[in-house]
Specification:
alpha/beta, Rossmann fold, 7 strands, binds S-adenosylmethionine
Length: 271
């Protein structure tokens, strides 16, 4: 199924520490969207708002097929299925996430519309031109942007909308940072300016790039600290050998990412 890079990502998300993400972020495994009006919102509320923004861009309707590529524990998939009436296949490299997402869909009475596949989004077990829409929601940087876009282009129908969030590098992004995230979170980031070419090469037409760096990155560390404090007891229940160092490492990672990366939503159409 998976090469060693994908196996490393699976190990990261299957670990007790990897299982903490959804607990801290309200079931989502992506970051949040804040602005002056919503400055008091906690991480979970802001993560839910970002999911709503993504759903608003997704152009999918009742009965249509939607691919959630790198689906986490299924929260965004359930949300888009409820909001639009679409059918969703979620793909995740993490067995823990696939099982958790499947159980959640069952508990919501949505098993007939949601399927969660354990495998790699670089080799989706579906035929060409199968889906009416799809997204990579904070997942493409684990997969390699050009390989992931090529496989998405294969399974999407001509005219289908693909949305994704990615964390673009900045002119100030350092080589030390790139090496750190490659080693610790198995991620590679590209510049926003690379996206038009990446999309073109994969067979997509760029619709828009929304730079929402200011709505995400400066908020991360203060909001993470709040959520860590609010969930202290659950953290130690999930990660029984959790230490202050583990918590400090999380804060460090978020600080380092906020310093070295932006945040954007990319919308594209399959040609
Ligand atoms: C930061 S999480 C985002 C999860 C989810 N999209 C959300 O917003 O809650 C990244 C996700 O990408 C998935 N992932 C990473 N590499 C993958 C691959 N090669 N194939 C499938 N899923 C992958 C991980 O398992 C995880 O679910």
């Amino acid at each position: 199924m998976a090469g060693s890079a994908a196996e490393q990502v699976a190990t990261l998300y299957d670990s007790p520490e990897g299982q903490l993400g959804p607990l801290l972020f309200g079931g989502h495994l992506h970051w949040g969207y804040w602005d002056a009006q919503h400055a008091d919102d906690d991480f979970a509320t802001a993560a839910d708002r970002l999911a709503e923004i993504m759903i608003g861009k997704s152009r999918i309707g009742p009965g249509q097929r939607f691919a959630d590529l790198g689906c986490g524990v299924g929260h965004p998939a359930i949300k888009i299925a409820k909001a639009t009436g679409c059918q969703v296949d979620g793909v995740t490299i993490s067995k823990y996430q696939q099982e958790t997402a499947t159980a959640k869909a069952r508990a919501e009475g949505l098993s007939d519309r949601l399927t969660f596949i354990h495998g790699t989004a670089l080799d989706i077990p579906r035929p060409d031109d199968f889906y009416d829409g799809g997204w990579f929601f904070e997942s493409i940087f684990h997969m390699g942007q050009s390989e992931a876009l090529a496989e998405a282009a294969r399974v999407l129908k001509p005219g289908a909308t693909l949305t994704l969030t990615d964390l673009p590098t900045l002119p100030t992004t350092t080589d030390d940072f790139r090496a750190f995230v490659r080693e610790h979170i198995h991620s590679s980031f590209v510049a926003a300016e690379d996206y038009p070419g990446l999309l073109e090469d994969a067979g997509f037409e760029l619709v828009s790039i929304d730079d929402i760096t200011a709505n995400v990155m400066p908020w991360l560390v203060p909001k993470l600290k709040e959520t860590l404090a609010a969930h202290e007891r659950e953290i130690y229940a999930v990660v029984t050998d959790a230490t202050e160092k583990m918590i400090d490492d999380w804060v460090f990672l978020f600080e380092y990412m906020a310093e070295n990366l932006g945040y954007m939503i990319v919308t594209a159409r399959k040609k």
